[in-house]
Amino acid sequence: MIYLFLYPLHTIFSFFNVFRYITFRTIYAGLTAFLICCLLCPWIIKKLKKVQIKQFIREEGPRSHQIKAGTPTMGGLLILFSIVTSTLLWADLTNKYIVILIVTAIIFGLIGFIDDYSKQVKKKNKGLSAKSKFLLQTLIGILIGILIWLTPDFSTKITFPFFKNFTPDFGILHILFAAFVIVGSSNAVNLTDGLDGLAIGLVIITGATYMLFAYVTGHINIAEYLQINYVPGCGEVAVFCGALAGAGLGFLWFNTYPAQIFMGDTGSLSLGALIGAIAVITKQEFILVIVGGLFVLEALSVIIQVSFFKISNGKRLFKMAPLHHHFELKGWAEPKIIARFWIISIILALISISTLKLR
Ligand code: 57M
């Protein structure tokens, strides 16, 4: 709103000219989301405790997790509120990608909320069935894929890191490709959210990296210089990424070890879907495999563990999947696992940024 109402006044007050700059609005979208999340979280924690929205711990889990029983969950409601409010304030709401991302946040957040709420009703860590959750995610993923595909000036050509001349055009199949990236990313973040601050820390790093990708992809001169796809209007997605990273920092303040609140599926499913949608819009889908490498490793560890368990009649490759539980059972302290996963993620983010020059 600020952009729509205050920028036009720059003809009277020249200071308002600053609102035209995506960099300025990205920074203040991040600071606004951080402040909203930080200031409201203590109140949300109190409210969730009062209405008994608390975490139920699965028996099969590491014994160290039993102590976490009763931690307020569904903190994702506050994360999404912070992101959407800050985006409404600082982004250009006539930008179609901004509208698509707000829709993605709300609908995937709703899927997660239904899952979280059903766990509260059943009073155990079993929400929606895996099948119904996956079906819902896929249907919404296809809807988001169609909205992106219908956006004028959006190219259905896919780009790959290092190979600037290999850009296959997926045409209408881009809808299914986008749905695959969005649903895969949503589930990968969901699986990763199993240690205090782990998932939100990785989301912050990924969001900050895509802030840069969105800015350069939406800047015709920089995109031309880097020989990457120019996506008209994509620069505005940097403002959304700023709000995403800022809200993540605000939530991390309370989710860090020992966590006072969990984000719940309300947060993990929507944050994962947002990262997937941003990767598709900025046409940096395969880079997500690098910068979101920890999410990929966590999801792969589950796929490998379950497959190996089935073909070997009950043997396990990892002590427990996802990967973070394997290190817990190896005796690593929880904060150590979290910090090391973040360090690896920052290194992967730097490598992914370097691919902009390695073409
Ligand atoms: C998402 N949810 C956490 C919290 C968070 C197929 C199988 C691998 C599925 C997987 C599964 O159920 N994943 C669900 C992970 C849960 O966190 C809640 O869920 C939200 C995210 N969706 O916001 O509300 C637990 O994670 C811990 N936690 C923290 N700090 C945080 O900031 O400590 C979460 C956030 C919380 C809390 O203990 O209760 C989760 O892990 O369920 N299943 C698993 O991951 C299970 N692994 C498993 O079964 N492995 C098997 C096979 C099937 C692969 C094996 O290796 O043999 C683990 N789940 C649990 N404990 N709860 C086992 C250990």
What are its keywords?
binds Muraymycin D2; 359 residues; single chain; 65% helix; mainly alpha
Summarize the amount of helix as a percent range.
55-70%
The termini sit apart by 38 Å
- Low-pLDDT ranges: none
Largest sheet: none
Structural class: mainly alpha
- Alpha plus pi helix count: 14
Number of domains: 1
Give the averaged pLDDT, no decimals: 93
Bound molecules: Muraymycin D2
| Percentage of residues in strands | under 5%
Query: What Rg, in angstroms, do the CA atoms define?
Result: 20 Å
Count of DSSP strands:
0
Shape annotation: globular
Order of helices and strands: HHHHHHHHHHHHHH
How is the secondary structure organized here?
Elements: H1 2-6, H2 22-50, H3 76-90, H4 96-122, H5 130-150, H6 174-192, H7 198-217, H8 220-226, H9 237-255, H10 264-281, H11 287-291, H12 293-311, H13 323-329, H14 334-354
Helix pairs in contact: 2-3, 2-9, 3-4, 3-9, 3-10, 4-5, 4-10, 5-6, 5-10, 6-10, 6-12, 7-9, 7-10, 7-14
The site of Muraymycin D2 has 31 residues, from helix 6, helix 10 and helix 12.
